[in-house]
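Annex B.
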Amino acid sequence: MKIFLLGYMGSGKSTVGKLLAERLKHRFVDLDQYIEDQEDEKISSLFQKKGEIYFRKKERAALDELLEMEEALVISLGGGTPCYGDNLQVIQNSAENTTVYLKYSIPILLERLWKEKEHRPVISHLEDREKLEEFIRKHLFERGFYYNQSNLILSCDEQSPEQICAA
Ligand code: S3P
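Shikimate kinase: predicted structure tokens.
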């Protein structure tokens, strides 16, 4: 059994994933971290040096590797992972896999991402709050098409990681 956590950047997928994995006694894998370990490079410098297409290829290859593993895992995906190619389809092809969308409202995402956008290559170029908000709004609208196909959608505003895990 594999549980995949989906959601926009800043949704706390890794925090919740770690906690959930502990509770279920599954191994936890953060897809971004898995790629960073393989490439021995931070995602932000991969984007910078080799570009987004290279990153998306690595992301898909890493996803395929995890899907091949027999063991039970909790996996936090990157914010863009379910939205490229047939990534979401290959995850959802197996009834053994469960996808969970950690859903947050735009004001909360904006608050969190404004404070920590520097190491996020997709938004680091946006220099003011209004531009970031506009970007998140459009991006979330596009990506929501994929996120909303999850098996479970959790509204996470005002919820602690512990409460989200218990849901
Ligand atoms: C991305 C989100 C990041 C990381 C990469 C691209 C995206 O992961 O995979 O920077 O396209 O939304 P987080 O959602 O963990 O920040």
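The domain at 2-166 is CATH 3.40.50.300 (Rossmann fold). The chain has one domain: 2-166. Further annotation is deferred to the next reporting cycle.
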